[in-house]
Write a structure and sequence with these properties.
Length: 1352
């Protein structure tokens, strides 16, 4: 199965391996749909599900041009270059710098159809920072830099880390150099705020998942900065903290010798890692790692809650990733291992459960590759198990009723190593929810678990010395099905702390394994097949071989743009590589002998690409005096010339057992075999057009006669000597003879410069020297010419491939010693004036280049393969303009096909209009059979296939029985728009289709949550999952019977002799403890009293050891919030008499202990509380209000003070009915207007019964589709609730109504199609939502029809 798509010139890029210089930068997009990481000067985008390369974004090099438009004096080529290549930064180097930080924008898929093409509103934006201090904002869809962030400083402060912040608009926070923190406006690129933390070394910055305005920054010395971006422009609230209790942070770490005063932390201390992460389950809790410490830090208290030391046998921490659903931490270590930590019950402390190896010991090189970064991918199941009685559709979790209340969750960890590989590990965790005795388990897991690994990656393992090679096949193997360990990979398991973890290696993406040193392109001639006994010429295979510094040879499939196989041949750097025909390779390496005799050990090997075997030849027992300088293989692959440094060259016949034919003791400087002969034109093409005569075209007739007279089994090579002499030798069998060319009429003077490069294709020989001169010579006519390139010496010259009817046969690519290149056409009168200078687009210096001989038609563009100095491999298409023969330009490709081993199922990559159409189809409900196009094509049921292709597509839609909102014709039109994607099989894969089928069966809210999670909108998915519970909570609490029962059950009673205690106030504590299970990220949307109260109670135990005065005041407040007045009094009375707060605390203790409800006492306490509020003692005043039962006023004061979580916790403990709803309503207003979290605000509105406000919020956010499906979801929940609470009809009622059924059928049908929605005066809002949704659908249809389908 293959996926095809249109590509841009940048699709032909394979990146080199990532390194420590990239700072371990990597990031998963929201929802885990895409993985981005830095490799050299490129940003690599991969699909973590299918383990395929999506694209590569090369950072443009620093340019001296400060304007975004070319000058009038620029060349025609420069005027045609894309604007994205013009960087507003001065040139700091000739090539782009290392990418050091990456962050995906959390902006969701926009519903605003009027601005869907605006890159600033794209949901596929990626911020990338590099070592030169530049920050580029990429738009992945257009693959262009849409915005640069300029610091306007002379020094280049390298980027350490990036983070997206959400205030009134999207902001981007960045760390520049060692200590500068900057806040940018992501829409304009303007700097809003700066903060210099010198002399600290800031190392990382993270955003609070509960409040996107809040972010924290950590330094290597333990300095912690907490900041909140307020609504006012450039206004930031700051709090500074210091993490104590850690060892000397930089003890034992030496500063890098390359470090300067402006270097970031990763450059100053390259082996020191300090990481920071917010807990996704507990608000205000930070998880921090230093090299050997793991600690929890409470921002609200400004103190550490726990500190865990790393065992001595474990390597230092590299990074930390918290589990989004379980109280687990995944920590990467510098020694390539992964540790799993579990939180102790009732504490904010973690114990080590297990250690796992991230690098398999079998199939890897020695020494083992280093782990650079890890990422936790949530694309498989973004939402985990919510409750035992409510298992969501999205997770692949399996609840086993026979396991005593265990649930199983699967997670996928992506590991990026420095050998160019991405490893995909499946982490299966079986969590026992009833486990309580964690201390015993913690003691059992302090020792490191024994890890055993076995892996079988389909490799061939051997040694380069004994004639075998190690080859890793990449394209031939498909990823293992999810949740199933692949054959040959043994799962690691660990038991302890009430959990069992198993790791399985299920996928691998192999890119370039090391720094590229050389490049070879196959260009076989007719003799390549004649030698094997065939009658047809050998085809040009779409493969490119790359030699690497590690001794491996990577074979690139240019059609799939992937590494198809990798051979480990040499123990040192591959210094030369050539194809022998189209199925064999010859390579060499050498090493210097350091013993007394000295010399060099040369190693040559022939590799068969088909079998993977390699055979060394010319094996000598003793070192040689001279190393090998180069290899030159004939086009047929029958002959090989070995050039030595200051030694005679050797000519070998490359038979099954290579034979040396002759040694030539001539001082060669360059030597090149002739390329395959130019195709002879057909009779219909002979008179098609006439061109201006030129040295390269005037001898076409003589070329034909020469080819005819030449023996078909002989091959020739041209050469230049040190004295400037030129010559051509012919090899026939085992004989080498002079070709006897016709010498030039004007002899080339040796004083012009030493010949350093040559290209030979009958009848032309093109030469370049160290002075930049290019000369060409026709060996059959003797015509010659020359010109000067006005550049440095020439290192390589390559003839472009030609086809029948080609306009020019004299195009050459010239590589200079300054690692730049140019393209010249020797068939033009003035090649220099019409040259194509090197475009700045490659963004890297060029080490090697060659043309790809894949052209079959003269209208196809030329393709140039490049090995960059940044270890990347690039394909650049050169389209020659047809209006003027002197104009050459680089244009975007319009019909390039990329073949993939499996479809790229990433809906987030679809064009915005088609992505919105797919989301709407998934929301409305489509049958599972709609995704089965490929299985229908392969099946024998032709009638089913015909009906699916040409039939009524509306049959694919699910009959939901819900009222119709919007235009009923829209679903069929959307299915027609999405049909090209369905035929390619690139909508969603089989596993997700099965999950969607289960979601469709469960109901409308599950479908809506699935559609949101597919496009990475996890907050919206959580909202849809929580909506039924919030809606039912509102319905239950709004009924009179529920209000009376809640008041009698939940409201505590006070008396003089009975002081309220923790066990007496919340009577639902026992039920909460027995039924409550960690709901993961749904804690963010908690609204029920039981959930809020139990979360608050859980946090109290974390702060028992904090004894500072400020901490005591906050602990008292927490105890009062949950109704534990007895604990608050005990804590207040523990204040020492000599303390300055003894008397205020004693007064509060006395008042709290006297719960006498008398009017005079109440009035006095209110006055005292008011005075305390006036003197900025609001918390003390709130405690006094609680003592007299004024909880509504206490909640209002807490909300006025910004303590929103404390206010709702207090309300959950003491308030009910409308009082509790008012607290939720005000909290929802704050979350919507200040925290800008619409999904959390909607849940609170629904729980408070404010349906009109919820619809108004959706209208204001311009989400008509979400508002419509919100109405349908509420209608579905409300209808099911009414049907479950109403009594079934009696038999008499059925008999009485039997005669009236026919007359009432139409009325019942009309009533059924109306939206059943609770609330008063809501009909107008429903009509408005339906009208706007219909307009949105019609506009979306027109937009989809105007958008061209794009698979990638």
């Amino acid at each position: 199965m293959s996926g095809r798509g249109r590509a841009s010139p940048w699709d032909g890029i394979l990146p080199g391996p990532a390194s420590r210089s990239n700072g371990g930068c990597s990031d998963c997009s929201p929802g885990g749909a895409l993985l981005a990481y830095g490799a050299g000067s490129c940003v690599v985008i991969a699909d973590p599900r299918s383990m395929q390369l999506v694209c590569v974004l090369p950072m443009p090099p620093a340019s001296s041009s400060s304007s975004s438009s070319p000058s009038p004096s620029s060349s025609p080529l420069q005027q045609q270059l894309p604007l994205l290549l013009l960087s507003p930064f001065p040139a700091a180097s000739a090539s782009a710098s290392f990418v050091t930080s990456l962050r995906w924008s959390p902006q969701p898929l926009t519903d605003d159809l009027s601005s869907h093409e605006d890159p600033s509103n794209s949901h596929l934006r990626l911020a990338a920072g590099d070592r030169q201090g530049r920050i580029a904002l990429w738009d992945l869809r257009s693959r262009q830099v849409v915005l640069w962030f300029d610091l306007d400083s002379g020094s280049r402060l390298g980027i350490q880390d990036l983070c997206w912040i959400r205030s009134d608009s999207w902001l981007l926070a960045s760390i520049h150099g060692p200590s500068l923190l900057v806040l940018w406006d992501a829409a304009t690129g303007r700097c809003l705020w700066k903060y210099d933390a010198a002399p600290e070394y800031l190392c990382c910055i993270r955003r609070d998942p509960f409040d996107w305005r809040h972010f924290c920054t950590l330094s290597l010395h333990g300095f912690l900065l907490s900041a909140i971006a307020l609504g006012v422009e450039g206004d930031v609230s700051l709090q500074e903290h210091r993490i104590n209790g850690i060892s000397d942070p930089l003890e034992g770490f030496q500063r890098s010798e390359k470090e300067s005063a402006n270097s970031p932390a990763m450059v100053a201390y390259p082996l020191y890692y300090a990481s920071l992460s917010f807990s996704p389950l507990w608000r205000n809790v930070l998880l921090v790692t230093f090299p050997r410490e793991l600690l929890s830090f409470d921002i609200h208290y400004g103190a550490s809650l726990s500190l865990s030391q790393l065992p001595r046998t474990c390597g230092k921490f590299l990074d930390i990733i918290p589990d989004p659903e379980l109280d687990l931490l995944y920590c990467a270590h510098l020694d390539g291992k992964l540790s799993i930590w579990k939180r102790k019950l009732g504490e904010q402390a973690y114990v080590l459960c297990t250690m796992e190896e991230l690098m398999p010991s079998i199939g890897s090189s020695v020494p083992s590759p280093s782990v650079l970064s890890i990422a936790l991918c949530q694309s498989e199941s973004p939402l985990r198990t919510v409750r035992d009685e409510d298992i969501t559709f999205l997770s692949s979790d399996v609840v086993d009723s026979t396991s005593g209340g265990k649930f199983r969750s699967n997670k996928y960890i992506m590991v990026i190593s420095d050998d160019g590989k991405i490893w995909q590990w499946s982490l299966d965790t079986d969590e026992d929810v009833d486990t309580r005795d964690s201390q015993k388990v913690a003691n059992q897991n302090q020792s490191q678990s024994q890890v055993s690994e076995e892996s079988d990656l389909g490799t061939k393992v051997g040694s380069a010395d004994n004639g075998t090679s190690t080859s890793n096949s990449v394209i031939g193997s498909a990823p293992t099905p999810r949740g199933t360990p692949p054959g040959g990979i043994k799962a690691h398991s660990s038991k302890g702390s009430g959990s069992t973890s198993k790791m399985n290696l299920i996928g691998q993406l192999h890119l370039l394994s090391s720094t590229v040193t050389t490049l070879a392109v196959p260009s076989p001639s007719l003799l390549a097949t004649l030698a094997r006994g065939g009658n047809n010429p050998a085809p040009a295979v779409p493969l490119v071989a790359l030699g690497t510094q590690s001794g491996a040879i990577d074979i690139i499939d240019i059609i799939a743009n992937a590494v198809t196989v990798s051979f480990s041949v040499h123990n040192s750097s591959v210094r030369g590589l050539r194809w022998l025909g189209n199925s064999r390779l010859v390579s060499f390496s050498y090493s210097q002998v350091n013993d007394k005799g000295g010399g060099y050990t040369n190693r040559l090997a022939v590799i068969c690409v088909r079998s993977g075997l390699n055979r060394p030849f010319r094996v000598l027992q003793k070192p040689e005096r001279a190393p090998i300088r180069a290899l030159r293989a004939s086009s047929s692959g029958r002959y090989l010339v070995i050039l030595f440094r200051d030694a005679p060259v050797e000519v070998w016949a490359m038979t099954k057992n290579p034979i040396m034919l002759r040694s030539l003791a001539l001082p060669f400087t360059v030597l090149e075999w002739t390329l395959p002969a130019v195709p002879r034109p057909t009779p219909t093409q002979n008179g098609s057009s006439t061109r201006q005569s030129s040295p390269a075209t005037s001898a076409d007739s003589k070329t034909t006669s020469s080819d005819t007279s030449t023996d078909d089994t002989s091959e020739s090579f041209a050469f230049a000597l040190v004295n400037g002499a030129l010559g051509v030798f012919e090899v026939h069998g085992r004989r080498i003879r002079d070709f006897r060319p016709k010498w030039p009429s004007s002899t080339f003077a040796p004083s012009d410069g030493l010949v350093t490069a040559m290209a030979y294709r009958l009848p032309h020989v093109v030469m370049g020297d160290r002075l930049g001169n290019i000369r060409w010579w026709d060996v059959t006519t003797g015509l010659s010419s020359s010109f000067n390139t006005h550049k440095e010496g020439i290192r390589r010259i390559k003839f472009s491939p030609v086809v029948s009817g080609d306009r020019s046969r004299g195009r050459i690519a010239v590589l200079f010693y300054d690692n730049t290149f140019s393209i010249f056409d020797l068939d033009t009168p003035d090649p220099l004036a019409n040259s194509l200078l090197q475009p700045q687009s490659p963004g890297t210096l060029v080490l090697e280049l060659d043309w790809l001989p894949m052209r079959t038609n003269k209208d196809e563009p030329l393709v140039l393969s490049i090995a960059g100095a940044d270890s990347s491999f690039r394909l650049i298409e050169i389209n020659i303009g047809s209006r003027r023969t002197s104009v050459s330009s680089m244009e975007k490709v319009t019909a390039k096909e990329i073949y993939r081993p499996m479809p790229l199922c990433a809906p987030i990559l679809l064009p915005t209009a088609h992505a919105l159409a797919l989301r709407m189809i998934l929301q409305m409900g489509v049958k599972r059979s709609w995704f089965n196009y490929n299985s229908l094509c392969s099946s024998t049921n032709t009638s089913l296939l015909k009906s699916s292709v040409g039939g009524d597509l509306r049959g694919y839609m699910i009959e939901t029985g819900l009222p119709t909102i919007g235009d009923p014709v829209v679903p069929e039109l959307l299915l027609k728009v999405l049909d090209p994607y369905r035929k390619e099989g690139c909508i969603i894969d089989e596993e997700r289709a099965d999950q969607y089928e289960k979601a469709a069966e469960r109901g409308v809210t599950d479908r809506l949550a699935f559609a949101a999670s597919i496009f990475g909108e996890l907050s919206e998915a959580l909202f849809w999952l929580q909506l039924p519970h919030a809606f039912l909570h509102f319905l239950e609490k709004s009924s009179p019977s529920a209000a009376r029962s809640s008041s009698s059950v939940l409201q505590p009673t006070y008396s003089v002799d009975n002081v309220p205690s923790l066990d007496q106030v919340p009577s639902f504590e026992m039920a909460a403890q027995t039924s409550k299970k960690n709901s993961g990220q749904l804690n963010e949307l908690a609204f029920k009293k039981e959930e809020l109260w139990l979360n608050a109670k859980e946090r109290i135990s974390w702060h028992d050891k904090l004894d500072s005065e400020e901490a005591i005041q906050k602990r008292v407040h927490e105890l009062v919030s949950v109704g534990n007045l007895e604990g608050a009094v005990s804590l207040l009375l523990s204040t020492p008499p000599e303390g300055p707060h003894f008397y205020p605390n004693a007064l509060r203790a006395v008042v709290l202990s006297s719960a006498v409800s008398r009017s005079l006492h109440e009035l006095a306490v209110k006055v005292v509380a008011a005075n305390m509020v006036r003197t900025d003692k609001s918390l003390s005043g709130i405690h006094l209000l609680c003592a007299v039962g004024r909880y509504q006023e206490a909640c209002s004061q807490l909300q006025d003070a910004g303590c929103w979580t404390d206010a709702v916790t207090l309300a959950a403990t003491h308030l009910h009915g409308s009082d509790y709803s008012r607290v939720l309503h005000r909290w929802a207003d704050y979350v919507l207007h200040y925290e800008h979290n619409i999904w959390r605000a909607l849940i609170l509105y629904v729980a408070a019964g404010a349906m009109s406000e919820a619809l108004a919020a959706l209208r204001k956010s311009k989400q008509p589709d979400t508002a419509a499906f919100f109405l349908l979801a509420c209608h579905d929940i409300y209808t099911k609730h009414l049907s479950s609470t109403s009594a079934p009809p009696t038999q008499q009622d059925v008999v009485d109504r039997s005669g009236e059924e026919n007359g009432e059928e139409s009325e019942e049908l009309e009533e059924k199609m109306k939206i059943n929605f609770p609330g008063r005066n809501i009909e107008e809002d429903i009509a408005t939502v339906s009208e706007f949704f219909g307009q949105y659908q019609r506009k979306l249809i027109h937009l989809c029809m105007d958008t061209v389908p794009s698979i990638e």
